[in-house]
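Data deposition worksheet. Section B asks for the primary sequence of the deposited chain exactly as it was used as input, without tags or linkers unless they were present during the calculation. Section C holds the resulting structure in token form. Section D is free text for depositor observations; keep each observation to a single sentence. Incomplete worksheets are returned to the depositor.
Section A, Depositor: J.P.
Section B:
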Amino acid sequence: MLGILNGRVYDPAHGIENQIQDIWIKDGRIVDPGEVDRQKARIIDASGLVVMAGGVDVHSHIVGSKVNAGRKFCPEDHYDHVRARSSFTRSGVGYTTPTTFVTGYLYAEMGYTTVMEAATAPLVARHTHEELEDTPLLDKGIFVTMGNNHFIMRAIQAGEWERARDYVGWLFEATRGYAIKVVNPGGVENWKWGKNVSALDDDVIGFNVTPRQIVQTLCRINDDLGLPHVPHIHGLRLGQAGNAATMVEMIEALEGRRAHFCHLQFLSYDGEGGRMRSGAERVAAAVNSHANVTVDVGQVVFGPATTMTSDGPLQHRLHQLTGHKWLNDDVEGEAGGGVVPMAYQARNPINAVQWLTGMELFLLIDDPWRVYLTTDHPNGGPFFRYPQVIKLLMDRDYRAEMMATINPRARKGALLADLDREYSLYDIAIVTRAGTARALGLKNKGHLGIGADADVTIYEPLDDPEAMFSRPRYVVKGGEVVVQDGELLQERPGRTLYVRPDYDPGIRPAIKKHFEETYTIAFENYPVQDDYLHHGEVIPCT
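Section C:
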């Protein structure tokens, strides 16, 4: 049992802003004070301290085959965050792509307790789950890539959306996944032929379907299955000048259905060719006028990064532009991907545009409940740079200082210089906790109400937001204090969150036939067994 007394509570899910309150914890949950024997409870005096729910990251790349490829690609990355084995922790390393153990430690030491792995091909889900089990202190889940899946596209081509729906239901059973992920729909498949898609109504080679049909069908399926999170969409023409117009068209193509667009910054550029400029104003206007849409920003932070995505053609283009080493791969009948190391530089005109585009999106999207803090780790920079992004959002003078350092070409005509908005602590609690938990459909996360998971972060209210959010005074995970004054006190396993939607099992013979005809792996060997989820928890569908 644990009591957190007299803290300045920020709990936007319940409209609580800077109110002095006590929080009581028992058996890993926040409970009514009457359920606790105060004489036996450990007491934390939080007088003068800021109390929030544990951080919830809606989009990060922390485990899986592409992350491991990034680790292998960048041995120089292993010189940072070196952790020796201790009496309760395990050794590890890594800056842009930390090893599993270090990932859990760094997130927890920053006050985050729940993180979603943003893209896993179904075929490699088993390995991803092995790494999730290896990642301590965090509750987590995986988004399953479906936007270039052969079975789904053939069902769309035949006009059999129910067949596609039942296959998606089976995929969740087979992968122990949490949400539908769509990456460059149709473009990853076309890349197998050395091509891409650039518009919503382009043809996917060999399937006679379009990106528009893929997105609309998966959104319909998501609603029908009642999944807790909406389709998590990586749009078309990522990283290309002029993609802002395409992004607006994708939002409109939803026709009112709910969806989440990830790392929006990389999809919000105007201009053409090498003359890229921010298109944040028009994209933010589209988000503001479509209440069915949520987004995360994918903010670029200057310094080392490792780009990794299921968008193979993008990675090849990035390799050509930078000359950096490059990996591309193809996941049979399902997905593809690539890895390119990166370093964002303030004086680079393109990198500068990327940085200010993200900032403009944060400040131009009106509702903090629909825009969330991410760096698309490690694509825009590592997750442990979030405190710097928070400072940029809360301090316009600091933004001005940073803007003065970027390439003058990028600054010319940028809206950012005229945006005076500053996020409050209440806003930060939304974009890092309450909003992300709500978007994920995690009813026990992101708030401090009765029945919530006892994941709590306590901060000292420093004048410097970066320092404040870099080093919490306390972090509580599942009712246990795991971090105190920035130091890890214990290691404990987190849970793997997944869904089990209802579907017609009569689809299985058709899926088995599909495997026999197209896969190199047997149908029976494909599903992830429950043995791989030692700490699994099913999140209900509606």
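Section D:
The two ends are 32 Å apart (CA to CA).
The first helix runs from residue 65 to 73.
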